[in-house]
Specification:
Two copies of one chain form a homodimer.
Chain A: H1 4-18, H2 27-34, H3 38-50, E1 54-57, E2 63-66, H4 75-82, H5 110-128, H6 131-135
Antiparallel strand pairs in A: 1-2
Chain A binds a DNA duplex through helix 3.
DNA sequence: CTATTACCCTATCGGTTTACTAGGTTTTAG
DNA sequence: CTAAAACCTAGTAAACCGATAGGGTAATAG
């Protein structure tokens, strides 16, 4: 299940991407338009700035803006930063790998191979969708 | 992320499916072989019995056995019972649909269409894999 | 210069879920 | 009878989630 944090983060990024100009967008504007608690949204946008997706401008007329072009931002990258692993099980995660303590051998694990297939299918979709795709999909 | 419960449940089903005869398998045997806490496993197998995947026999020599053939059991069905929805967001779930309270219109939601694609990709994999496939995949 | 705007930071908190444990009851084979 | 096994009810410690509180700090318009 996707957390609200991730969901809100994606929506906010899409909102900013839909703006024609590159002027900073205020959190208050996004929170009102997308029905997201402003304080909660602030913490999410802050995280997106620290991880290199957004830039920010302080003071009057400030806000957040995209650093890269929307088509350069893959959804895999966004989800990995906000949500963490895309895989359903740590032992098949590419970026957040962890060994299962109950499995002596991953190659003989019934769950392992199945979850690799699911992971690859998800990675395919999320890797070929960019912020541009989801921002313009209305 | 898949819960331990679901993971253990799948492993247990696979273990039972690998047995040639149809004699009941005890929880103690499965828990030792698969490194699962026995008490926790008990509750999982009980749930799998109540949802129609397993039969049980009480008393000495009792245990759990498959009711259907392994190739008749799709992994979608197992996961839906143990884990719940397969979709990453309730608003795209086929079996556990729920409306988002922040979305006025699903058709204009940036997250919605993306998550439908992910769901369909996952459903494809999990729907074409049966218990037979994952039990014999070593 | 000063008021305002809006980003930035820390801390906390109630609620839910997760993974598991404890302890007992019922049923059955031998 | 008795040992073994499923069955049932509760409880619980820890983690996580979504949000809120309350400010601090930097930049800018006028």
């Amino acid at each position: 299940m996707l957390s609200k944090k991730t969901k809100y983060g994606i929506k906010a990024l899409a909102y900013i991407a839909r703006k024609k100009d590159r002027k900073p967008v205020q959190t208050s504007e996004i929170s009102e338009s997308e029905n997201i608690s402003q304080k909660f949204l602030e913490s999410i946008l802050l995280e997106l700035r620290k991880s290199g997706f957004l830039g920010s401008k302080k003071g009057k007329g400030g806000g957040y803006y995209l650093i890269k072009e929307p088509e350069e931002i893959k959804m895999t990258a966004v989800i990995r930063v906000l949500e963490g692993p895309i895989a359903m099980v740590p032992c098949v995660s590419l970026n957040y790998y962890e060994k299962c303590d109950d499995c002596p051998d991953e190659n003989t694990c019934a769950v392992h191979k199945l979850m690799i297939q699911v992971r690859d299918a998800s990675l395919n979709i999320l890797g070929e969708n960019t912020l541009r795709d989801i921002a313009t999909s209305q």
